[in-house]
Amino acid sequence: MRFTFWEDFLALVFPKTCASCKRSLFDFEKTLCKACIARLPITNYHLQPQNNDLVTKIMGLTKPGLVMSFLRFTKKGVSQQLLHLLKYKNKPEIGLELGSLYGHLLLNHGFKDYWDVIVAVPLHPQKMRRRGYNQSEQFARGISEAMNIPFEQLLHRSIYTETQTKKSRIERIQNVAAVFEVAKSRHATSWLRVLLVDDVMTTGATLVACANTLHQSGVAQVDMAVIAAGRY
């Protein structure tokens, strides 16, 4: 009873609010309220994962698999707001909830047991220390929990690179072409079916570099999923 009293007291003094609209959350709501979840700009890429504009972006740069995005990215839209909070405002729980929502969506559309492992695009240790968490890993862990597929960090980022925001497509591809490697602790990657996860896909350069590294290690299948796709 004591704990319930203190929980009720803290909820009264410091009520949990929706990360998007700032309204108070009900007990059954985690980070986003049901109204904001209903307004998420969900794409239909999971319905055509082999034939969409995201696949076209990476064609010829890596072995194309399924390429999907949970949300449409629009400037000043909900997806940009949530990504900004996730990346820069110390809100890792947003990534977990978005991953959970997407994982359940994928389950409902026939992707059960489709992958052996879920892998996130890694941050360089220097950036990881500064931010405290990897936003892409939070999204990946949310998917992992919802789909009951293990998360494993197969990749390591060995070279620090500056932000790619102002670089051209060719510059982005060149900038990340050799910065990733398979983690030394992972010896057997042959025949793995991997879902590679990132936060945003613009040119696809980072995902391509990661996918090529995984393919070179013997991974059989690399599919891609991001929180949002579009142009900053």
UniProtKB/TrEMBL annotation:
Gene3D superfamilies: 3.40.50.2020. Belongs to the ComF/GntX family. This is ComF family protein. Residues 136-230 form the Phosphoribosyltransferase domain. Pfam families: Pribosyltran.
